[in-house]
Structure formats: C-alpha cells, structure tokens
Write a structure and sequence with these properties.
single chain, 8-stranded antiparallel beta barrel, alpha+beta, disordered N terminus, 5-stranded mixed sheet, Porin, Rossmann fold, 22% helix
Length: 293
C-alpha cells in the first residue's frame, strides 16, 4: 500500500511538472488545423483547448478557460487575441487548409504566441521585486584574545549593481575573570552592508562595507563578596566583509570573513581597577548557508 501511495505522489508530481505553462483556446478549427495545433504547439509548452464559438467575446472566453490567448479563423485570416494586453494579431490563412498548410499555419500561430508571450514575460520579470536571500552564518569572532562562537542572520537583495543586506548577530559572550570580578560580556549587533558581487565559474564572490549598532552588556559578581554587578552600553561600529559562495540554486554555501571597528568602547572597572577592556577591533570567520526566495 505504501508503494502505491508513493507511486501516486511521484506520478502527480511528474504530471504537475509536465503540465504546459500556457493555454490557447482554438475556436471551431477545421480538423486538419486542430490536429496540427496539438502536434506543433505541444512541444512548446502550449496547451491547446478546442472550443465552439458561442457568441462570447474573446476576453470572456479566455477568462472562462484560464487561457493566455484565443485564436480562430475569420475568412482567409488567422486571428489571435492575447488576453494579457488585449492585442489582436492577424495572419493570412492558406487555402485549401490541407494537412501541409495546416501544419504551416500552426507553426505561424506558435511563432505569434511565443514571440508575444516572451515579450510579456520579459516585462513582467523586469517589474518583479528583487529576489530575497536569507541565510545563517556559524562562526567564531575574536574579541582581543578571546574567541566567541557566534550566529549571524543575513538577508540580502540585489539593488542595481550592488547587493544590499542586513545583519543580526549574537553569541555566547566573552568570559571575564579577574581578582575583583567574574562574569560574561555580551555583544548583540544589528547592521547594514552594501556589497559588490562578481562571479568566477560557479563561485560567487561578494565584498563590501557597512555600519552597525552594538548592544553590549556585562553581567557577573564582585569578588570576594559575591554581589551582583552589571552594566550596558550601545556603540556604533564600521564593518567590512567578504564571502565566497558555491551556488546550487536555491541554496548557496561557502565561507565568510568579517571585521568590525568600534571607535568608542567601554573600559569596566571595579574600585578604579580595570577588570575588562573591550577591544576596538573584532574579526570573524565562519561558514554560511543561504537560501534564495
């Protein structure tokens, strides 16, 4: 039973994949043209539906059949109505309409449809919003001599020749252990970058710079009393990053390196004695996985 279910699912998926993307309604065609249309248009992903003319206008017929076009013979002409923009094209229809002439007319119909639809699809594609890529970076960030595991969430979108992105990251924190204090310092960052992309074969490279806000805090206890002690601050930073990705749509994965310079950083003291001083420069390396939508 399980095999039958799997086979049915696979069969449905194959049929869905093979289903033509575009539909044409052909009104009252002669038998030769009906056969030629099915034979000639099928390989070009055009689904031909035969219907009788009932007095309805071409727009209504296209809507009823969810079709992109309606075609019919009018005397010695082939008339093609495009439902996308309402355009009407006419082409001479040969007479008599024997098998050879019907095959030629069907190829003419295919050319009219595909040329117009390709133009429409190109315009629609140009008007689409840029694709969004979201991903995750697992890496290590160096705070001075301390290496901190961090997770960074990324979201990128192409804008013109550049890629604009946002970054959000957090980590386990940097341990702080001194005679007067023990605890953990944390840095959660949110930033934006502008990247310049280029490719070499299947490898996509990106490099650029941006800025970020760093929401930092320190939590711990004073020694030897054990009293709780904490503090927090918000700092501004300048970022640079570069990545190399191997793309296999809709997934890309590779390596990323980043560095951050924070001009103003804290120096934590207990009774005027420094227990932790935050480095102005941080470096990070990691592996990245990106999903395109």
């Amino acid at each position: 039973m399980r095999c039958l279910v799997i086979a049915a699912v696979i069969g449905a998926a194959v049929r869905a994949h093979a289903q033509p993307a575009d539909r044409l309604v052909l009104l009252d065609p002669p038998h030769a043209l009906e056969k030629a249309a099915h034979d000639q248009l099928g390989p070009y992903r055009i689904d031909v539906v035969i219907a009788k003319a009932d007095g309805s206008d071409a727009s209504s017929i296209a809507g009823h059949y969810h079709a992109r076009a309606v075609a019919w013979l009018d005397g010695g002409a082939l008339v093609v109505y495009d439902a996308g923009d309402g355009a009407i094209a006419t082409r001479p229809a040969p007479t008599p309409l024997d098998d050879a002439n019907a095959a030629g007319l069907a190829l003419t119909l295919k050319t009219v449809l595909r040329t117009h639809w390709d133009e429409e699809d190109a315009v629609a594609s140009a008007m689409k919003p840029p694709p969004l890529e979201v991903g995750i970076v697992a890496g290590l960030r160096l705070h001075g001599s301390t290496a901190e595991p961090r997770i960074t969430l990324v979201a990128d979108a192409p804008v013109g020749p550049f890629v604009l992105g946002v970054r959000g990251s957090l980590g386990d924190g940097a341990p702080v252990h001194q005679d007067a204090f023990t605890g953990t310092w944390n840095d959660r960052a949110l930033g934006a970058v502008a990247l310049w992309p280029w490719t070499a074969g299947e490898i996509a490279f990106r490099a650029g710079a941006g800025a970020s806000l760093h929401f930092t805090d320190i939590h711990g206890v004073l020694l030897p009393a054990g009293d709780a002690a904490d503090g927090d601050a918000v700092n501004f930073g300048f970022d640079a990053e570069a990545s190399a990705l191997w793309r296999r749509p809709p997934i890309a994965f590779g390596a990323r390196a980043a560095t951050t310079w924070v001009p103003w950083r804290q120096r934590y003291t207990v009774t005027d004695v420094a227990v932790f001083e935050v480095s102005h420069v941080e470096a990070e390396i990691g592996v990245v996985v990106i999903f395109a939508f």
